[in-house]
Amino acid sequence: MSFRTRARRHPSFVVGGLLTLLLVLAATLSLVWTPHPPAEIDIALKLRPPDATHWLGTDTFGRDVASQLLVGAQASILVGVIAVGIGVLAGVALGCLAAARRGWVEELVMRAADFTFAFPALLTAIMLTAIYGPGLVTSIVAIGIFNIPVFARITRGAANAVWAREYVLAARAAGKSRWRITLDHVLPNIANQLIVQASVSFATAILAEAALSYLGLGTQPPRPSWGRMLSEAQTLLFQAPLLAVWPGVAIVLSVLGLNLMGDGLRDLMDPKLARKR
After folding, report:
1. Average pLDDT over the chain, rounded to whole?
2. pTM over 0.70
3. Could you give phi then psi for residue 252, rounded to 5 degrees?
4. Measured between alpha carbons, how far is 102 from 91 in angstroms, rounded to an integer?
5. Looking at the DSSP assignment, which residues form a beta bridge with residue 204?
6. In terms of residue numbers, what domain contains 156?
7. φ, ψ at 58 (rounded to 5°)
8. Distance CA 178, CA 172 (A)
9. Is 189 inside a domain boundary?
């Protein structure tokens, strides 16, 4: 069966793809339209329950919750795309370098990855905040730095397996350089694993951005952020519990969708699992 046919029959991929598509559509829609201006404050309408005018109600400043959720999707996608992009570009390059050169180069790259793992995204964001101040860029850089060793390790492990294959040995015997072999043989054969990891890392980046914004280290006012919406709602859990429900549901569905899509991609791109299906 073709990839498209198998994808349509894979429940995890279908559900994850639909949830991810919903996230992308929400962010795209917010670029051109929102029910109300997301930063518009109207104290007279604060803590209003959902109605025909304000579909999900208003917050403590009278801002429309539905509009903030739509615009908040922009920050989540922006952080995910750029942070994962940093991890892919730098991590894949370092992983390929380690697998191609081996010896002390591989050891140096892996020990540097181990050192970076000692500084999770939250700790890195705190250090960067102390130097440059909080903001969306700080979140992107912190999460991106954390993603580099993740992709470096995965790339190096998968590339080492490819370097041991017969066709790579034949290419080396034919006089191909290590970089030509990496481009022609290694990267095409490990691309599937990198795509799956990118989808999972995207979900992790959204979760990390929400956590950083919740702590006040991420997206700053007046730009909406799901994490900051949760932070602002925690003091109103008994007075207006829905204020915490809406951003929480948005984060859960986005992360769930990307994880399900990643699991589905792993199954669909694994030749052994594909034959079983």
Report:
1. 90
2. yes
3. -60, -45
4. 16
5. none
6. 82-276
7. -130, 160
8. 8
9. yes
